[in-house]
Design goal:
Layout: H1 6-10, H2 13-25, E1 34-40, E2 46-51, H3 54-71, H4 88-101, H5 121-131, H6 135-145, E3 149-150, E4 156-157, H7 170-190
């Protein structure tokens, strides 16, 4: 969007970061438009990606590390997506074990269609506020959620839901959302109401 590449930004990295931090401290930082890119999918359709500018990506990377440090202690062991040292292979291994040795009568496979595009901003921010007592930090995340999206035809969309696939912080935000609306819900509402054994394996992939 601002025509600044990582390589160009890195030529004067220390000074650029110093100025970025100063703008944050003075509350002068503003998130920029997100450029929409489309990549082909195997079924002939296209997957939309949102590409933030370099400074937004740097800040999102730092925010992601903070969120991971906070939420890794909360996330349940049955979630495998977007987590350090966890992924599809471990999910498949644990699922195989449960199917072989668990006492399950039914297997339900479900896919959340259009999940990234439909995350409710208000609910996500309320979830973050449960663990983060830092309004400027939560406000920074809100600014990324509300950032305008520049489409390939030149129009600008102002989203009311969703977090763009391609954003550095989007995977951890998606995981936090699913932690509350699916993982905790399953543990506290579904498992106690089941007559037998119940187990969930959640893997998310953008």
């Amino acid at each position: 969007m601002d025509k600044v590449t990582m390589a160009e930004y890195g030529k004067n990295l220390s000074e650029n970061i110093r100025q970025l931090v100063e703008r944050l401290k003075r509350n002068e930082y503003r998130s920029r438009l997100i450029r929409r890119r489309y990549i082909p999918k195997g079924n002939g359709k296209e997957r939309p990606l949102g590409i933030p500018v370099v400074e937004d990506r740097l800040l999102q990377a730092a925010a992601r590390l903070l969120l991971e440090a906070i939420y890794e202690m909360d996330f349940l062991p049955t979630s495998y997506g977007y987590r350090p040292k966890r992924g599809a292979q471990q999910a498949a291994k644990d699922l195989t074990y449960e199917l072989q040795f668990g006492r399950h009568g039914y297997v339900v496979e479900a896919d959340i269609k259009g999940f990234f595009d439909n995350i409710d901003h208000d609910w996500l921010l309320r979830m973050l506020a449960e663990r983060i007592d830092d309004k400027p930090f939560v406000g920074l995340i809100a600014s990324w959620l509300k950032a305008g999206i520049l489409e390939r035809d030149g129009s600008v969309l102002h989203p009311h839901t969703g977090t763009p696939q391609g954003g550095v912080i989007s995977p951890i935000l998606a995981n936090i959302y699913l932690h509350y609306v699916l993982d905790v819900w399953f543990e506290k509402r579904i498992k106690p109401s089941c007559a037998g054994q119940a187990y969930i394996i959640r893997f998310a992939d953008d």
